[in-house]
């Protein structure tokens, strides 16, 4: 399963296109060679789109239910955000990007690794009341026990990387439903990236991502992936889960800002 976007900044040492791109994650450095024979900015590449959908594929209804469940108090601007439902919703979103080909495979492990770290916190939380059942409670617990600076794989820092990526996903998916048909997938993805994750990435990641956007499926192909021939029936549900994702993002963003954690290294 491939992810669409990197959530950490790469180490850039004046690399040339033939050199190794080193992606810095929280505790490890991964080396991924850039193969010019695979992706060239001038190439015309037909996107590989999976048009068959199994029970493990992307499903708008599954994403909808996961994120709606995560928002414990939908009418509250400070609603608790359920950690397990947030993780479940994010994993469902990754299934959508998994349908877009293997262009961003080199970041897949990093995204999944961060979700697995959060899952471990939830699974190992045997406290009563629990410390990690909501995002706010988890951040409060790590703050009170001074775990954010002493543990490099803490919940708060790990979530921040996924939180930033969630805004890109929300803007991209919203653009697919709201932008005029004359706007290409490349344009929508680029605009979403430039207003979100662009500011957190170095030159090599920015360049690689934008080259990758060139092989994204067409708007019609993405409609097939998203709605599986039932767009009229589930379009409103699709729009609702996008609004819910943005509401969750805004709540988490405000909480990090309140704690002065938005710029955690």
UniProtKB/TrEMBL annotation:
<protein>
    <recommendedName>
        <fullName>Glycolipid transfer protein domain-containing protein</fullName>
    </recommendedName>
</protein>
<dbReference type="GO" id="GO:1902388">
    <property type="term" value="F:ceramide 1-phosphate transfer activity"/>
</dbReference>
<dbReference type="InterPro" id="IPR014830">
    <property type="entry name" value="Glycolipid_transfer_prot_dom"/>
</dbReference>
<feature type="domain" description="Glycolipid transfer protein">
    <location>
        <begin position="82"/>
        <end position="222"/>
    </location>
</feature>
<dbReference type="InterPro" id="IPR036497">
    <property type="entry name" value="GLTP_sf"/>
</dbReference>
<dbReference type="GO" id="GO:0005829">
    <property type="term" value="C:cytosol"/>
</dbReference>
<dbReference type="Pfam" id="PF08718">
    <property type="entry name" value="GLTP"/>
</dbReference>
<dbReference type="GO" id="GO:0016020">
    <property type="term" value="C:membrane"/>
</dbReference>
<dbReference type="GO" id="GO:1902387">
    <property type="term" value="F:ceramide 1-phosphate binding"/>
</dbReference>
